[in-house]
Amino acid sequence: MATAARVEAQKAARGTYPSPGPVRPLTLPKIQEFRLGNGLPVYLVEKRDLPIVQMTFVFNAGSIYDPAALPGLAAMAADLLDEGAGDKNALAFSEEIDFLGISLGAVAGRDRLSLSLFSPSARLEQALPLLGDMLLRPRFDTGELERKRTEGLVRIKQSYDEARIIASTAFNQVVFGKDHPYARPANGTEASLKSIQPADLHNFHNTFIHPANGFLVIAGDMDRAQAERTLGTLLRDWKAGALKPFVVPDPPQTRGFQIFLIDKPGAAQSELRFGHPGLPRNTPDFFPVQVMNTILGASFTSRLNTNIREVHGYAYGASSSFNMPKGKGAFLGASAVQSDATDKAVAEFVKEFNAIRTVEEQEAEKARNYLALGFPGEFESIESIAAQVADVLFFNLPENYLNAYIGEVLKVGKGDIERVAKAYIEPKNMVLVVVGDQAKIEPGLRALKLGKINYLKVEDVLGPLPK
Amino acid sequence: MKGSIKFVFLAWWASLLSVSAFSQGRVGIPYQMHRLANGLTVILHEDHTIPMVAVDVWYHVGSGYEKQGRTGFAHLFEHIMFEGSGNVAEGDFDNLLEQVGGSNNGSTTTDRTNYYETLPSNALDVALFLESDRMGYLLDAMSPGKVDGQRDVVKNERRQSYENRPYGLAFEAVVQNLFPTHHPYHWPTIGYMDDLTAASYEDVVEFFKKYYVPNNAVLVIAGDIDPAATLQRVKYWFDEIPSGQAVLRPVAPNYILEAPKYLTLEDNVQLPRLYMVYPSPAFFAPGDAELDVVANVLTGGKTSRLYKKLVYEMGIAQSVSAYQSSQALGSMFMIVITARPGHTLKEVAEVVDAELAALAQEPPTERELQRVVNQREANFLAESQSLLGKAEALQNYYYYTGNPDWANEDLGRYKALSPKDISTACRSFLTEKNRLLLSVVPKGKTTLAIKGE
């Protein structure tokens, strides 16, 4: 009888990288559209696997509509919407939200104000009255306004410590111009925070928070009948006003390469912000620009991250983005680099801004795949689904945008990428904001001979330090 | 604002299996567990909501396993794990994943290091190949040059979060002074610059051989999978990796401070900030849930004890937060208060002490306790949407309790508490003797700090 042969574990084949199997289809949900009696458009995505509901109200409101004398009004109003509403003062309102374990709040950006509710289905009946009160009957009590005033002033004071905030604020100011709606201080100034009155807030609410100036997206454990019934009653008395038209001028062209240096003595790193005016969200070149930017600076293997982090070790990370609001936004390249490598890192960034005009086929494919094949991840949660749908509506994107996304990305070719790189990134007409240890880094920056160096103080950017 | 959106109609949710048990108030994440011959623990969770999968590996090693003089090493090692392995060229770990539409990351804590990918389910094999290759064959691709490269990256990571951040050096001062010198938690996970400089290629090799072995690792796969087929693929890729020596977890005696400690740091900050830190019970030990509740009662929302007093009514603080930072060998209960201009840290500390005394004397209300339970339940539901969130929950429970599906028991800890238990916990753990007070003040303003009598 033969002895049993010793069987060795079969080793896996590691000679070539494994390939994925056939792509599994993403089945996108149906969107049901209807209007409430008060005229509010509602878009509903049913998802019944978990007993949770997300409601996202979006309004045409934000810092771009702040009166010239009252920057920060939209942010303050959004912040105060949940500081007491209906019969409940701020403490009682907040206590109820906390006790239920729901999320309910509002935040104002530049172009839009979002008011969101996330609630377990079991708590919805108790959550909805709070939502209704917030939308229809915010109190804007003077006591709460005073509190928020103080909080806002101290926050401005604290921003003096933060190199990141100084850099980003300065960037917007030098790219758009200080008076441009996208550069004005969204959180207010010392003067404006001290001036805001309850009447301003009530006026804001009447002007912006109503059914003709927004829409609602619902995702989760709810059907149309339930939505119409509960919200119909809840929001029956909500009166429509006028639709707020969107008017934001294009920013001026950047001419030449200009450096803006802000001293932060002793800083261990320099915050770098490169850029110039960019594109609005509804640009017809959206997909090629996304793919191009992924290659340049929006993935771990991007050229900027590979160069600045992996090859040179100058920073923990480097990135680029086309920020695309409703109007023309900005192109931005950013990093926090170790102080003694500031000049070298700047030179590498400029090199990459020029080199992106030529890409390899392999890079293009990887970037396309990264965006297209990872797209299903955007539909994992009801918060994310609602956000995707809200974006399509807010920016007036094509009806079939989400269905077409994957196909559109995969269509982008090397030629498209190179075309948009040349069209939309201009290394010769660019600003560079640097917040860092001036004594250490200035000689090196000068030696690069990139352009004029302008010197700014923190006060020039953030305003005088509040007492 | 107008516009309709047309989609392919599918009752997509109707075809989904029950992805998380939430029936009759029981929370949970159904799973299967297997163990390979080499000791690798494999946990599988099925969820077909989207055609994606999360692959999550925990190695049971963290900064608490380090030696003095080599702090920051577990985290530095984590970085090196992404730089290629025997059959994966440098840079290709990320290249390959991006190519198939995946994203990835990792993190290091005192207790463990995790590595995870989320990617389309049709590419699961790619993730398994990459994870098995670095588990088995990292050393084949290791070089002193790679260690040097990541050393620089980590130093910048440290600068970004510590040296170049307001209050950035506070955390390190806290752990240095709260935990005794030879305690595994005595240094920050990021490590010190000098130790990072001293870390050598030989250190990397030793570390890998000791800790990065299948018997010290747990692989969780959550998402659009067929469990039987997936287990076969896991065996295909991981069976060949030999097991290593058993890994002992570090131990540390329970300790309390005999007398309060006082520390002052000056920093480039506008506002002074006080850290009140108490050594507290370990993750899931008796007292841990109680202190989570204490933290919520103190600073969870506008009507919480400290927020309401310090920020809302008196306006002497810009912010306040309390939390029980739970770890395997002992936790830290922290209260962090940022004072408003014109107010000293002594002022805010007096208010905190008064509220702690009140809570130690007078139990919280049933409603304050129920708030915590309600929030935890809602949080569980929200996290159940996330494949990676569920994978991490399975990993976390398994590491700390030995049972991956412990969510119901976890929630049960809180449901079982009575208001009296909360006061008892305050009296036991949050005493004036058993704490460290760290004052971080603007340069030159040490008069704002709290010093011992």
Distance between the termini of chain A: 96 Å
Q: Which oligomeric form is depicted?
A: heterodimer
What percent of residues of chain B are in strands?
15-25%
CATH superfamily of the largest domain in chain B: Metalloenzyme, LuxS/M16 peptidase-like
The number of distinct structural domains of chain B comes to 2
The average pLDDT value of chain B, as a whole number, equals: 93
Return residue spans of chain A where pLDDT drops below 50 for at least 5 consecutive residues: 1-7
Tell me the overall shape of chain A.
Answer: globular
Largest pleated sheet of chain B? 6 strands, mixed
* CATH architectural category of the largest domain in chain B: 2-Layer Sandwich
CATH domain class name of the largest domain in chain A = Alpha Beta
Query: What is the CA-atom radius of gyration of chain B, in angstroms?
Result: 24 Å
For the largest sheet of chain B, list the strands in their spatial order: 3-4-8-5-7-6
Question: Structural class, judged by helices and strands of chain A?
Answer: alpha+beta
Estimated helix fraction of chain A: 40-55%
* Biggest interface between chains: A-B, 104 and 94 residues
Query: Got a strand count of chain A?
Result: 12
* CATH-assigned homologous superfamily of the largest domain in chain A: Metalloenzyme, LuxS/M16 peptidase-like
Query: Which percent range fits the helix content of chain B?
Result: 25-40%
> What is the molecular shape of chain B?
globular
Percentage of residues in strands of chain A: 15-25%
